[in-house]
Amino acid sequence: MFIVKNGRKHMEKIAESLKISEGEACNVANSLVEKGMIINISHLEYESLHPRFAITNRYRRLCEEDCIPFRKNLVIDNIGIVLEIPFEDARTK
Questions:
Q1: What are the pLDDT digits (tens) for 42-93?
Q2: What is the 3 state secondary structure string of the chain?
Q3: 19-50 b/e with 16+ CB inside 10 Å = b?
Q4: Residue 21: pLDDT over 70
Q5: In sequence order, which residues have a C-beta less than 8 Å from that of residue 48 and are 6 or more positions away?
Q6: Dihedral in degrees, nearest 10, Cα atoms 22, 56, 40, 91
């Protein structure tokens, strides 16, 4: 949620803002990259995917992991819609 609300950030700023070590922040960020929710722009800079894509990517992967057919899910769609406002606000400052 931090990157969604604040836009593209360098790992140092993420760790500082969240009051965690850079190592912890890096581990979390890399986990989110693997889950298809954020992207690594450069060596230590991250950006969120559009919320609808990010949440759908994660839902699709969870369905695959749990051997559940992937289909439209209104709860997942609504989470993406709610996160669009802070996502857009962070990119138009």
A1: 888 999 999 999 999 999 999 999 999 999 999 999 999 999 999 998 888 6
A2: CHHHHHCCEEHHHHHHHHCCCHHHHHHHHHHHHHCCCEEEEECCEEEECCHHHHHHHHHHHHHHHCCCCCCCCHHHHHHHHHHHHHHHHHHCC
A3: eeeeeebbebbeebeeebbbeeeeebbbebbe
A4: yes
A5: 3, 4, 7, 37, 38, 39, 54, 87
A6: -90
Tokens of 35: 């889950």
pTM reported for the whole predicted model? 0.76
* Number of Cα atoms under 13 Å in the Cβ half of residue 61: 12
